């Protein structure tokens, strides 16, 4: 079991991941700029789980300080500033970026054209951290509304630190009931992050909560 | 049934798609710069199918001229020149781009950072065509080695011309046995094309031929 800080845990994706991680027995700290809001969100999640669970709220830097694993579930807007401010505390930790740099206009969502992904930006700004890109694609509401394994979806994991990537591939089973899929080096986050725009388009078109599965991998390792 | 030209039909992805389209009863013309190579490839496919089938080879412009639907299955290198040269013949046709702008180095494949996708480039260079981005993700060898529906994978389809997009969503059933998934506007090709880099990484890591499935869409329309 890990001590997991979810930065941006008051937002939908962060809330969903924090819920699932706490439900699985991990020690979870919701991080926010506002410790009061973080504590409120932690209480909401604890109440949903009902049984004895280890979830609390704290200001971001304090949430990070106590964690082995940090999940960045923050908006793209303000991402660089936030990571820079936390960088001294992220060193030596496994940092999971599920940030999606998207934009929206009258034609729906689309991926921003960037020289580096959010995950690569986080790695550049916090060079002592082991940044892994993952958990971009499971819908926030699917996480929040499901308490069993979301076994028909896959969690794709990319990163340059093999040990940290392995930790995240294992953590993926908390959500799907099966190990995450190794999607390659950290730079592949450029492909994983904006794929979320496709899923949001599909959700609107088909009135559903879509997800991604990778075929041909089951039973291989 | 459509008259389909497969430009780049002598390459693996084009060969696979040409095979499956001919197998389903469409009239297929393999296009190449070299009509002789195109004809050889058409004969290879006809021999594999065995029964009476309507597949032939021609020089690119001639292949396009006779077609209702044109599949661009060409390398990214040289893409702009090729599309420009064919543009006068592409007007009024449904043009399917399955081009993947990837690069490879010691760390494997990755998506190129581009201002526009290959599909958008084709649309810009052939403004009278109805360009649709699709068929990026089914592995060339899966297409070639399978004669039944590849029902565990999905074909994602993006485009701005709704009628052409509908044609391609229907054609997707030729490969998977089910209608393709509407992934949104043509600009979403920026997300679909480089996702192939993720799949190639997964193939190498897991020694498999991976594919993409979108969950939560079955039974919705």
Overview of the molecule:
- In chain A, the strands form 2 sheets. In chain A, strands 3-2-1-4-5-8-9-10 form an 8-stranded mixed β-sheet, sandwiched between helices. A two-stranded antiparallel ribbon of chain A has the order 6-7.
- Helices cover 41% and strands 23% of the residues of chain A.
- Chain A is globular, with a radius of gyration of 16 Å.
- The first copy, chain A, has helices at residues 12-23, 35-49, 60-65, 79-90, 118-125, 140-145, 162-171, 173-176, 189-206, and strands at 3-7, 27-32, 55-59, 69-72, 94-97, 102-105, 108-111, 130-134, 156-159, 181-184, 211-215.
- Chain A binds chain B through residues 107-108, 110-111, 113-115, 152-153, 156, 158, 181-185, 187-188, 190-192, 194-195, 197-199, 201-202, 205-217, 220-221, and chain B through 107-108, 110-111, 113-115, 152-153, 156, 158, 181-185, 187-188, 190-192, 194-195, 197-199, 201-203, 205-217, 220-221.
Q: Which structural class should the secondary elements of chain A be placed in?
A: alpha/beta
List the secondary-structure elements of chain A in sequence, H or E: EHEHEHEHEEEHEHEHHEHE
> What radius of gyration of chain A results from the CA coordinates?
16 Å
- The total strand number of chain A stands at 11
Query: On the 0-100 scale, what is the average pLDDT of chain A?
Result: 96
* Separation, N- and C-terminal Cα atoms of chain A: 23 Å
Name the beta content range of chain A. Answer: 15-25%
Name the assembly state. Answer: homodimer
Tell me the number of helical segments of chain A per DSSP (H or I, 4 or more residues long).
9
Which pair of chains forms the biggest interface, and how many residues does each contribute?
A: A-B, 43 and 44 residues
Q: Which residues of chain A form runs of ≥5 with pLDDT under 50? A: none
User: What gross morphology of chain A would you assign?
Assistant: globular
Strand order of the largest sheet of chain A: 3-2-1-4-5-8-9-10
Estimated helix fraction of chain A:
40-55%
Largest sheet of chain A: 8 strands, mixed
């Amino acid at each position: 079991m890990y001590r997991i800080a979810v930065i941006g845990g008051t937002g939908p994706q962060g809330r969903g991941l924090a819920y699932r991680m706490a439900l699985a027995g991990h020690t979870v700290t919701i991080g926010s700029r506002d410790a009061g809001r973080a504590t409120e969100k932690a209480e909401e999640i604890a109440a949903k789980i009902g049984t004895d669970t280890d979830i609390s709220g704290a200001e971001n830097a304090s949430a990070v300080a106590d964690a082995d694993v940090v999940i960045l579930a923050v908006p793209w807007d303000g991402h660089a500033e936030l990571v820079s401010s936390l960088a001294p505390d992220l060193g030596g930790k496994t940092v999971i970026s599920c940030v999606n740099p998207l934009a929206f206009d009258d034609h729906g969502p689309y991926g921003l054209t960037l020289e580096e992904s959010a995950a690569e930006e986080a790695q550049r700004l916090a060079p002592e951290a082991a940044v892994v890109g993952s958990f971009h694609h499971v819908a926030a509401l699917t996480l929040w509304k499901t308490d069993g394994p979301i076994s028909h979806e896959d969690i794709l994991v990319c990163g340059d630190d093999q040990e940290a990537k392995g930790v995240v591939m294992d953590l993926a089973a908390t959500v799907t009931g099966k190990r995450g899929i190794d999607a390659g080096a950290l730079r592949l986050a450029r492909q994983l992050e904006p794929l979320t725009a496709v899923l949001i388009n599909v959700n609107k078109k088909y009135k559903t909560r879509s997800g991604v599965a990778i075929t041909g991998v089951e039973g291989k390792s």
